[in-house]
Design a protein that fits this description.
Blueprint lengths: L5 E6 L4 H12 L2 E7 L26 H10 L4 E5 L5 H15 L4 E4 L17 H29 L2 E6 L19 H21 L4 E7 L6 H6 L14 H12 L10 E3 H8 L16
Parallel strand pairs: 1-2, 1-4, 2-3, 4-5, 5-6, 6-7
Helix pairs in contact: 1-2, 1-7, 3-4, 4-5, 7-8
């Protein structure tokens, strides 16, 4: 096996956008540390978006299956359990990767809060669920950045990406549950957007590059299984490989450094640079719900 370009740590890597990013980074030459809650196929996790009902039916995907795809690209895979609502798992997962592989060159904060409150209206949403959104979508990426940045700075090399959402930039087109989203999602995504610009200002001179990667509407396993009931048409999305290809470009292309600290429209950039041959039509829906 050829020497790796480095190590990428991808959260939410069991399915969807995270899985695609992991595979494309592996294709670009990185060994991949895969982090998520679902380690084995068929595990039951709460993924209902509303307080009105519970849903623990298994979603397709797991770290096991993503690891197999990474290894099929000729790269090493290391699976670590990570729950972005549990800070102890943030530290333990990063420690495991650094102990095993000695470095993390690329951090992709892709995981987001999955659970009740996502598609509930303000007066229906318990305050503790708003706290969970902030813990998972805002604080977890910040904590992971603080954990990985020192060793990046030591080597004068590193890349951070936040897979973000336009929900943090604008009001929803409809109430939560009818094609819109709840306050917790929008405010937590809006808050975490500030991380990337701060990293750029404070650490560009240390060889660190950082991006807010906006995927737009993407057809993922969870979008297909769960979100039709809340007014979202999975068929309107672009494939996850679009964002995987863009993430690999941001992590490797010298030209990407011109975008340091910026908001990157993933689908538009993919089409403009033809990063995924055969695909060229961005989704008409431009927000990741």
């Amino acid at each position: 096996m050829a020497e790796a370009r480095g190590v990428a740590f991808v959260t939410g890597a069991s399915r969807g956008i995270g899985k695609a990013i992991a595979v494309h980074l592996a294709r670009a030459g990185f060994d991949i540390a895969l982090a998520a809650r679902t380690v084995h196929e068929g595990e039951a996790r709460e993924h209902s978006s509303t307080i009105k009902r519970s849903d623990t039916t298994p979603l397709p995907g797991s770290l096991d299956s993503t690891a197999a795809l990474v290894e099929a690209e000729g790269r090493k895979a290391l699976s670590v359990f990570l729950d972005i609502t549990d800070r102890t798992t943030l530290g333990s997962s990063v420690t495991t990767v650094l102990e095993r592989w000695g470095r993390i060159d690329v951090l992709v904060n892709n995981a987001r809060y999955i659970g009740p409150g996502h598609m509930d209206r303000l007066l229906e949403t318990p305050v503790e669920l708003l706290d969970k959104h902030l813990e998972a979508n805002t604080m977890a990426p910040i904590i992971l950045a603080k954990l990985v940045l020192p060793q990046m700075i030591d080597r004068k090399r590193g890349c951070l990406m936040t897979v973000t959402s336009g929900a943090g930039m604008s009001d929803p087109p409809a109430p939560a549950g009818e094609g819109g989203w709840g306050l917790g999602y929008g405010m937590s995504k809006g808050a975490v957007h500030r991380l990337i610009g701060i990293v750029k200002l404070e650490h560009e001179q240390d060889g660190i590059f950082a991006y807010n990667l906006h995927p737009g509407f993407i057809t993922t396993e969870r979008m297909i299984q769960d979100m039709g009931a809340f007014g979202f048409d999975a068929d309107a999305g672009a494939p996850p490989d679009v964002i995987g290809a863009v993430a690999a470009w941001l992590a490797t292309a010298p030209e990407a450094r011109e975008l340091n600290g910026q908001w990157v429209e993933g689908q538009e950039l993919c089409a403009e640079l033809n990063l995924l041959p055969g695909w060229s039509t961005p989704s008409p829906v431009n927000i990741r719900p």
